[in-house]
Amino acid sequence: MTRRLLARESVADPRMLAEVAQGLAAPQKELSPKYFYDQRGSELFEEITRLEEYYPTRTERGLLEAWMPLLIRRLGTRSLVELGAGSAEKSRIILDAMHGAGTAELYVPIDVSATFLSQTAARLRVEYPRMQVEPAIADISEELNLPRRMPHPALYAFLGSTIGNFYPPAAIRLLSRVRGAMEPGDRFLMGVDLRKDVARIEAAYNDARGVTAEFNRNMLRVLNYELGADFNPAAFDHLAFYEPVAHRIEMHLVSPRPQMVTVPGIGVVSFNAGESLRTEISCKHDRESVAQLFEAAGLEIEAWRSDPDSLFALVVGAPA
Ligand code: SAH
Ligand code: AVI
């Protein structure tokens, strides 16, 4: 437990160091949300998914339960490849549908959160002893790290609206990578959080118990552990607001007072009073915006399902 609080003894990952140096030097300081997800960050995200205010997870679960048995039977899915799988809690609905159809052969959960991923894989191997589980550690903004051989047809799934955490050009690059890996008969299943009443969206990122605030601050703990930085997480305020022009939530950590932080290998980073570090964007979509992303990546919308309140949608993409 104390390990998390102390600086890592081994050398910092040079790629991470370079990325963080660049992000902290920008006029609007900004880091990738992938840095939320160490063990604690992944657990905090799981807690968020159970919050009353956080409607996406339960809405997506309802859509999966209603649709997957039929869809999977129609597609004959033999492999499920999941981007940003996390705990794979909702993925079980797809895996159960594959078992129900008698076609379950391989599950490839992909994630950056290595320890959490191996725990997920270990649990799934026990739950689905006749299916192969091949976890892949990868930063999906860079690569997919797929197994050499996969039974087809495969379903590539990207659930939870994690696509919204990527700026559109990066989202298109990611979707293009998926499209490039797809063989005839393969499909892409994506969950997207829809544009709606702003108060409803903002409440989902400003929960009353402050779990999202702790999740946000966890990025500073990751920087302390991974890079030996000396951020004081308690000295930063959580801020999440909807930016209506780009249709996205922005999460920031705001320094209410001037402060200086040392990041070994980077130097002293100063924050002015009121200055923020942007830690996440979460883009909200409609059918048109998804169609645009898909088109740019060589995909087309084959099917679309949303809940009666139009909170969330599941989209099936096919090669265009
Ligand atoms: N799919 C799950 C988890 C969503 S949380 C759900 O729908 O509930 C986002 C997940 O994506 C986390 O597990 C996180 O570790 C992973 N993730 C975030 N950025 C990533 C990246 N760049 N590459 C790979 N995984 C990433
Ligand atoms: C993982 N991702 C889709 C979540 C989201 O809603 O953008 C992460 C999150 N950030 C704050 N709460 C949840």
Write down the secondary-structure element order: HEHHEHEHEEEHEHHEEEEEHEE
Q: How many strands? A: 14
- Mean pLDDT, to the nearest integer, reads 96
Uncertain segments of ≥5 residues (pLDDT<50)?
A: none
Task: Please summarize the sheet with the most strands.
Answer: 8 strands, mixed
Number of discrete helical segments = 9
Distance between the termini: 49 Å
Outline the fold blueprint.
Blueprint: H1 14-25, E1 29-30, H2 39-49, H3 55-75, E2 79-83, H4 91-100, E3 106-111, H5 114-127, E4 132-133, E5 136-137, E6 154-158, H6 168-181, E7 187-193, H7 198-204, H8 211-227, E8 237-243, E9 248-254, E10 259-263, E11 267-271, E12 276-283, H9 287-296, E13 299-306, E14 312-319
Parallel strand pairs: 1-12, 2-3, 2-6, 3-4, 3-5, 6-7
Antiparallel strand pairs: 7-14, 8-9, 9-12, 10-11, 13-14
Helix pairs in contact: 2-8, 3-4
N,N-dimethyl-L-histidine binds at residues 48, 160-162, 164-165, 205, 212, 215, 280, 282.
Brief summary:
With 320 residues, the chain is α/β, with parallel strands linked by helices.
Q: Would you mind describing this structure in some detail?
A:
- The chain contains nine helices and 14 strands.
- The protein has helices at residues 14-25, 39-49, 55-75, 91-100, 114-127, 168-181, 198-204, 211-227, 287-296, and strands at residues 29-30, 79-83, 106-111, 132-133, 136-137, 154-158, 187-193, 237-243, 248-254, 259-263, 267-271, 276-283, 299-306, 312-319.
- Helix 3 (55-75) runs parallel beside helix 4.
- The chain is globular and about 60 Å long.
- Bound molecules: S-adenosyl-L-homocysteine (SAH) and N,N-dimethyl-L-histidine.
- N,N-dimethyl-L-histidine is lined by residues 48, 160-162, 164-165, 205, 212, 215, 280, 282.
